[in-house]
Amino acid sequence: MKNMRLLTVLGVLGWFTVSAQIDLSFEDNRTPEYDEVIQMYRELDKEFDEAQLIEYGKSDVGRPIYLFVMNKAGIFNPTMIDRNKKTVVLINNGIHPGESCGVDASLLLADEVLRNELLSDDVIYAIIPLYNVGGSLNRSCCTRANQNGPEEQGFRGNARNLDLNRDFIKCDSRNAKVFTGIYREWRPHIFIDTHTTNGADYQYVMTLIPTQKDKANPEISAFMEEQLNPYLYEEMNKTPYLMAPYVNVFGTTPDEGFAGFLETPRYATGYSNLFNAISYTTEAHMFKSYTDRVMATYSFLKFLGKYVRENGSEIRKVVQRANALDAEREVFPLRWELDTSASREIEFKGYEYDYVPSELHAGKRLKYDRNRPVTWIVDYFNTYAVVDSVSVPDFYLLPAAFGEVAERLQMNGVEMFPLSQDLTVNCEVYYIEDYTSPDRPYEGHYFHRKVETRTERMEMTYHRGDYLIPTSQVNRRFIVETLEPRGVDSYFTWNFFDGILQQKEWFSTYVFEDTALDLLKSDPELARKFEEWKQANPEGAKDGFQSLYFIYKNSPYYEKSHMRYPVGRVVDEVVFPIK
Ligand SMILES: [Zn+2]
Known about the structure:
Strand content: 15-25%
Radius of gyration: 27 Å
Bound molecules: zinc ion
CATH architecture of the largest domain: 3-Layer(aba) Sandwich
């Protein structure tokens, strides 16, 4: 039964001309449940020819993830889109279902866009109504301890207790696999992921993470920094929903300055950034009323939509130029670090605060005073320096044995060609020199950090069915960042190649002692290296096993594949056997 109640938002806020006819009750501090959300989109689909609700595949909990598509031409099959003529805007909601303001805001937006004919000829909206379905079914009063409503909130973990906003590369969840399919098929020019913050208190209703400018393609950064970001801040700051950059403080207060957030590819906008989407994470402020958070998110989406309607062809050109630049880039950065010497001063509307004696413990506690608004000039650190980069090979060679990696590359639309016969080829290969891993799993993995490699040139044998992956394709940056083991969210760091980190064959010391003596006699170079090692390691030289292991590791008996990353980098001209 369709509820034709006109939202009373207009009366409450006195600012927006919202004429939605959708049965939302965020003003009553309530967000709809999954089934209600889907039902509301279903009704919009029924009512408007310009809209369609598409079931895209099952989430981990077994219920579907949907995509709601709106455009004037009634194009609901992504293969029909000419991306040079249509701007695709993808909005993802409910990745953290406790942070549901985007779920309500997108319903409001869809209703208004359709009802008030706010579609232009060249814009295609694609909305994921609720991405973390399992987490949204897990509702309770209390999943967000510090947050001001709604009265029932979904849970951050999905049905497998994974944080989906860390799952975009490793793709453990069915949700992420469905998302990858949606993303590959629709390839948005603009991507927004909606959230609610944790952290400090301040006057802003909305905070924003534009994809980090030093990590993004320079064409994307220039456009966002010079045009789109200033427009969005300016428009938002004309409303009651003031917007500031995301207040990335942990354990301190904003007046001490704060840093831009580096969203690496495991995060939604870090992932979309690999494909040169103009990307934003909205973070509505947890202490503001649920109505204000929904309206702030809605306002942001509405302003962005207006800009896209009026500047579609320019946006498409920016993305085209970014893709063209990637196609020519010989070197890609792999890691970034915050430059703590580079900041700019920004105005920040906060609240005065004190550290007062705690009534609970012996220490002091931080207390903001909302009756004392204040405007500070604070240092904003948003320069990230490249600390590691890599030259792009012409091809990578991936053994088909690493099928989970091959599957993920294919899900992302990477073109790869199976070898039609075995091939021995001279490649650059990496040996993993060092890395650290945690004692406890992070998002289901013993995620590696501080990966160091050395490069060697050697003959590698690949087998029929192994994959040849050309880098001259549209997914060039994605391929490099996932296949280069030092990449901050590479498949290596996410444990897909851990088998190589363990030595498989060993020796018996009493047998190998004789072999070692023979080796030293017949190989003066080895004997010289052994003497050097003994000089440098007097303690080790006293130990039988350590001495023998040094000789073993430097002999032909030691397996070359130990610590060798199996993905070859082809930098010479080679004729490949492919069909
Ligand atoms: Zn979140």
